[in-house]
Amino acid sequence: MNSTGKLASRAGWFRAAILLLVLFVSASAPLAAQTASLPDRLPANTVFFAHWRGMGAVTAGEKTNHVVQLFEDPQFVLGRDAILKSLRDSIAKNGSATSEPEQAEVLSLFENPAILGVVLNPDFNKKTASDEGAASPATGFFIVYDARGKTAIVERLQAANRAGGKEVPKVMSYDFHGTKVEARTTGTDVSYTALTSRYYLLADQKAVIEELLSRYTSESPADSITQLAEYKSILPYLSPGAAIELFARIPNLEKTLGPAQLEKPGTRFVENLHVDRIRAFGGSVSFSGEATRFHGAILGDGSAGALFDFAGTSNTSFVTQPVVSPGPIFGISRFNFAAIYQTLRAAAQPLLTPQQAAAVEMYEKMAQGFLGMPLTDALQLFTGEVASQTFFAEDGSALKSYALSIQKPQDVLRVLRAAGGSFIVGEDTSGETTYLDLVYPYTDPKTGLKRRDFYYVAVTPSMVFAAPRKAVVREAILRLNAKPDSAVASGVLASPEFSHARSLLPEKLSGLSAVDLAQIPWDKLEVRLSQELADAAKNPPNSNPPSSAWLLTIKPEVLTRHVHMGVSGWWKDSSGIYFDSYVQ
Hints:
Layout: H1 7-22, E1 46-52, H2 56-59, H3 66-72, H4 77-94, H5 100-108, E2 114-120, E3 139-146, H6 151-163, E4 170-176, E5 179-186, E6 189-195, E7 199-203, H7 206-216, H8 229-234, E8 244-248, H9 253-256, H10 259-262, H11 265-272, E9 278-286, E10 292-300, E11 329-334, H12 337-348, H13 354-371, H14 375-380, E12 382-392, E13 398-406, H15 409-420, E14 424-430, E15 433-443, E16 450-459, E17 463-467, H16 470-481, H17 496-503, E18 511-516, H18 522-538, H19 556-562, E19 565-573, E20 576-583
Helix pairs in contact: 1-4, 3-19
């Protein structure tokens, strides 16, 4: 377990821990029956936690869950090991990498439950908080790990960690009610660790680890985060028996920050956004069925003037859906652009000096003269729906096309002409559709030479299309104009698995996305990635291998043997925003 002091080091350790968590199925044996939930002992002033329930919550689905079966497939082992090697190489850049046996021990730790999070620091003194921050920060980071059966491994890893690292830390220990607490100082930062007969604890604040020790060594704490109304409101949106559970809430900034921090522009801007109307966020990852499911909610006051205004209304259909049909990957979301601008402007306006306010007003007038209409009117021309589809060229490169729902197409054209300016090198009209050819300069990353690339835009009475190929734009318009009785679904939409997964989501949505793994040209992607690796090898050390190089170790037929489809959706109502995803 890493317990280095500097915040940057802890952030790097945290990212490594999350990546290891994704590799949960690399562990070899399931944990037997789990005990009471770790969150039940967290203090009520916890503002965020991520709870890993242990391998038992994963392996319980090995007979039915497609994702679990993929990771347990012997032919996937090479891909898994390649990811682990990439992780070890990343760790080695910041210190000594673990050996193969140590790595296996680290992975075995994921058999047991653990929880990490952020809590309000009991030692924080609001009155003495200075402009540079209080001696004791307002929040503290922590990890609690159920170490039963793993104590020897934890102790060995602690010893290895003391001996490793680029800086030699100062280590001291003290007794807290019969438990040894080790304080490790690196530079100006200190981290605290403790190992009881049952738990391993890590925190970056002394008061935090002592409060957690009191809670995790007592019979039953008097209060808990799980007793709060905010947490209880999220429970209906968490899967029973989920392997991973997330929860967060917005603390009262007036009570948790000092006067100097409250007066900072960033803090006041956040307050003006009315984040206090967001009551809670929660989600969970479950492997209990055939599909791996991630779902949850952001709950709060959804009335006008709050952050929820950014989300468009939920309806039974999307006007852009027919035009994203051919590709194996698509995404559609509905937003309120005018509300987003007005919300951000309203939050910033009280913070502006008279000179800044005058400058903003001047820029808005300039934008109005440039666009031919007020900025808010220009934003309302785009009625909110944004869609994209990903398709693949013959050389395996991924290309994207876009569609935006609009009104008043002539006004939209005027805005696009003004914004495009000299980049527009051609324009023609066919029926009610106007095509714009755009060219933009760029620097070739391989040769450093200046080059030009083309992009094509089409404006119809109800939609704007954009794509790197004109033929793609024309095909999208043909699908848009096709009669309903003659339209034939293709791509992701033609898959029966998509229809099944879509039926699991609510009828009314504000966003929908999907990926059909079977329709991705893996052979072309493999050729392209191999070429990129070869090119990188020719120019060391100035070029690095693609971060996706490990994909070459996974045979596409192994992947698609188990996992075929991913579908996600999100929606809103007056109480919040909700999301649900299935991978099967």
